[in-house]
Specification:
heterodimer, A: 185 residues, alpha+beta, B: 283 residues, mainly beta, 9-stranded antiparallel sheet, globular
């Protein structure tokens, strides 16, 4: 059985200005985080039950809390998975979905089974791959997109910088520094 | 090409090829062009001075000088352009980077900033801001919201309800920003939407700044009894997003109000392993 009361309670406690602005003692800030985390777990069960009921299919639903740091074990390892996008707004929205994935090519289908345009983009700074596709979600509703790896295909790794390019970019960057040092900023 | 520009149907953003910093924004739909320079700076946190022993701390923002210092005057850049996204990755320093993004159909520029762990090896507390400098003649005025609803007009070194004797030219002009801050010259408006509450201000005409992260070494003697200094001495890093909208002043509210709602009530993602779930019905 899911339960949203613990999270409600945690959010109520966190109306304190110290929680909103992070200006409490460290151990209090840590306890605020603990209360939120403890409240979130039974909420995931509640959300899963609601999605099973509304979609008519009981799945092992997974919540990736670290998408903003491109971490999501399921999308980074599974050969195929579903993405349920829930829209809390009372109007239809289009949203670009970004998910960290393995070095493959993927096929994305919308709820009607039609293939939607998608891209796998390599993040320059971290070499992480991210799958992008645009999701259209109804007002106060959800859409289920299915993602599957195209067997035998791998995404083009970013061409390694040749030694020449490496030294060129080094020269460029050092040149920048020198030019800034020389030129009044 | 030497020219660094990202663009979609509505917006284009141009970067200085020498420094890698944002230098211009265009609203292609309304034919608006605004030189906008954006960079990260940091205020050196006060530890008290001859005027007052008040240090910068959890409850008090008090820089020890009016002028912030550059995190870096240039950024190493990488460009990613595909059919579904155009983005410029800017690396300012080991502890400050940003991705400037444009998706098709989007009427705002997305700046995903990543700041931290803020180095304090020099024994200076630091209060990091993202600052937008433009040529808009704003006459000392700027606007911040109150909980995403009411927009309040702010005037530098002024309070509407009492005769202000300004003793803190920076902190005394900082205001809470819950969802947006904007500046306008009456024709064009530059709005920045935030994904969390931040401190913000406009300390000179055409300029707008938001504080994104702080790391301090002194308690401010207001009751917390410890500095705003994350534990384990490693310091935290923070990632957030600023959405930048350039509009005609007359029509700007439609843009930022609808977009702010989409940010506040953004779609939530839930994943499930591929298909094959058990049919589920009430019975």
């Amino acid at each position: 059985a899911g339960d949203s009361a613990p999270l409600n309670e945690a959010m109520a406690v966190l109306q304190h200005h110290d929680a909103v602005s992070g200006t409490s003692k460290q151990h209090v800030a840590d306890d605020y985080a603990r209360q939120l985390a403890a409240g979130w777990t039974p909420c995931e069960v509640l959300l899963s039950n609601a999605l099973a009921r509304l979609s008519g299919s009981k799945e092992m639903f997974t919540f990736c809390h670290n998408l903003n740091t491109s971490l999501c074990p399921l999308s980074q390892t599974a050969k195929s998975f579903q993405v349920i996008v829930y829209n809390p707004l009372a109007r239809k929205v289009n949203r670009m979905v970004r998910l960290p994935v393995s070095k493959h090519v993927f096929l994305v289908k919308d709820p009607s089974g039609a293939v939607v345009p998608s891209d796998v983009v390599t993040m320059p700074s971290s070499n992480v791959q991210e799958l992008l596709f645009s999701a259209s979600v109804p007002a106060l509703g959800f859409s289920i997109y299915s993602v599957s790896q195209v067997p035998g295909w791998r995404s083009r790794p970013r061409p390694p910088e040749s030694r020449f390019q490496k030294s060129l970019s080094w020269i460029k960057s050092s040149f920048h520094v020198r030019s800034l040092l020389v030129k009044p900023s | 090409s030497h020219d660094l520009t990202i663009q979609n149907e509505y917006i284009s953003a141009r970067f200085d090829p020498d420094t890698g910093l944002l230098m211009e924004m265009k609203n292609l739909e309304q034919d608006l062009l605004l030189p906008v320079r954006q960079a990260f700076y940091w205020y050196n946190a006060s530890t008290g001075n001859q005027l007052s022993s008040q240090a910068s701390g959890a409850y008090i923002f008090r820089p020890n000088q009016q002028k912030p210092l550059f995190v870096s005057q240039w950024a190493q850049t990488r460009v990613v352009k595909t059919a579904l996204v155009q983005e410029v990755h800017q690396n300012f320093s080991a502890w400050c980077s940003q991705v400037v993004r444009l998706y098709p159909g989007q009427r705002h520029l997305e700046l995903e900033w990543t700041v931290g762990p803020i180095p304090v090896g020099d024994n200076w507390g630091k209060e990091v801001i993202s600052r937008f400098d433009t040529s808009l003649e704003t006459k000392g005025l700027f606007f911040t919201d109150s909980n995403g609803r009411e927009i309040l007009e702010r005037r530098r070194d002024y309070r509407p309800t009492w005769q202000l004797n300004q003793t803190e030219p920076v902190a005394g002009n900082y205001y809470p920003v819950n969802s947006r801050i904007y500046i306008t010259d009456g024709n064009m408006q530059l709005t920045v939407l935030t994904d969390r509450s931040q401190g913000g201000s406009s300390l000179s005409d055409g300029s707008m700044e938001l504080m994104v992260h702080r790391r301090l070494l002194r308690d401010d003697n207001r009751g917390v009894g410890e500095p705003l200094l994350e534990s384990e001495n490693t310091g935290l890093w923070v990632r957030g997003r600023h959405l930048v909208l350039l509009d005609k002043a007359r029509t700007a509210a439609v843009g930022h109000r609808l977009q702010a709602e989409k940010e506040l009530l953004a779609p939530q993602l839930v994943l499930a392993s591929g298909g094959g779930g058990t049919p589920y019905h009430l019975a």
